[in-house]
Amino acid sequence: MLEHETSGYDIAPLVTIGLTCFNAQDTILRALDSALAQDWPNIEIIIVDDDSADDSARIVEAAIVNEPRARLIRHDVNMGPAGARNSILKTARGEFIAFFDDDDESLPNRISEQMKVLVLYEKRVGASLVACYASGERRYDNGYLIELRAIGSMGDECPNGPGLAEHLLVYRPRTDWFYGTGTPSCALFARKQTIYKVGGFDERLRRVEDADFAIRLALLGGHFIGTSANLFIQYATSAADKSPEKNMEAELFLAEKYKDFLRTIGGYYYARHWPKLRYWHFMRRYFMFALELAGLLTLYPLRASKHLLTTGPRRLAHERNIRRDR
Q: Among candidates 37, 25, 17, which has minimal Cα distance to 88?
């Protein structure tokens, strides 16, 4: 589908597809092929190999040797997903940027559909800082499938401004906003200037760097929209940096980073202790879980109860489905 047919442009602006890669020799070609297959007529593809120890970089080099739209950047040291995305930002020539993950597969119309949704929203609302997320699905090896509905893909008003930062940090949902499955960078499409204004990605974070980006965008008044159509397939994988410990450490880092904001909304303790509650659950340390829960219920009886009752049963069902046999 041509751009002028979907978003009002006479000449299709350049879109940079940023593909981060780390030890992904078994999946990187699938992700790269899906980027090359985009029906958007004007793209460049920047692949950043983040100091892989396997054959990922050599596989990419061989695949793009005769492909002028793609180029590879190789890191000499591992910088994590935030550092890899910042390397993409430094060299991107596109007016728009979309991020793809090395173990995902994007449908051919992902860029054209996200472009249409973003530009139409800008014209309708007059917003200048907009992040558009793609809906998709996550597939597990045992056949379990999850629909990944994009934030802002339903409802009359899309999440925007500090209210979204508050929700991401301390779970304060509004009933008139649809949060979907959050703000994953693997589904993100935005104007390059929007990402620059936020300051890119915080390289101190190895996890939840995408939530951190969204928090900063929200505090600047950003708007968060999504596509109703499924545009990518995420294949569930595990890695050392996806451990419960790493996730808790990163979320506690966010609590400290946004301490001043959290104190203005009375949420600093909550942001410090809910990640610990979740960690003790994952580690099956139920006595410690009970202690954390008691503290949260004492200070935030309504919020903590609602948070637990809303997300807890879904989490338990999700864990059962992950463990089930095919």
A: 17
Evaluate whether 187 touches 152 at the Cβ level (below 8 Å): no
Whether pTM exceeds 0.70: yes
Q: What confidence tens digit (pLDDT) does each residue in 119-146 have?
A: 999 999 999 999 999 999 999 988 899 9
Question: What angle, rounded to 10 degrees, do the helices at 268-282 and 244-257 form?
Answer: 180
CATH number, domain 3-235 = 3.90.550.10
Give the model confidence (pLDDT) of 182-222 as tens digits: 999 999 999 999 999 999 999 999 999 999 999 999 999 99
Burial (CB count within 10 angstroms: exposed 0-12, middle 13-18, buried 19+), residue 44: middle
Q: Left (φ > 0), alpha (ψ -120 to 50) or beta: where does 266 sit?
A: left
CA separation for the pair 223, 158 (Å, rounded):
7
DSSP state of 159: -
Q: How many CA atoms lie within 13 A of 209 on its CB side?
A: 21
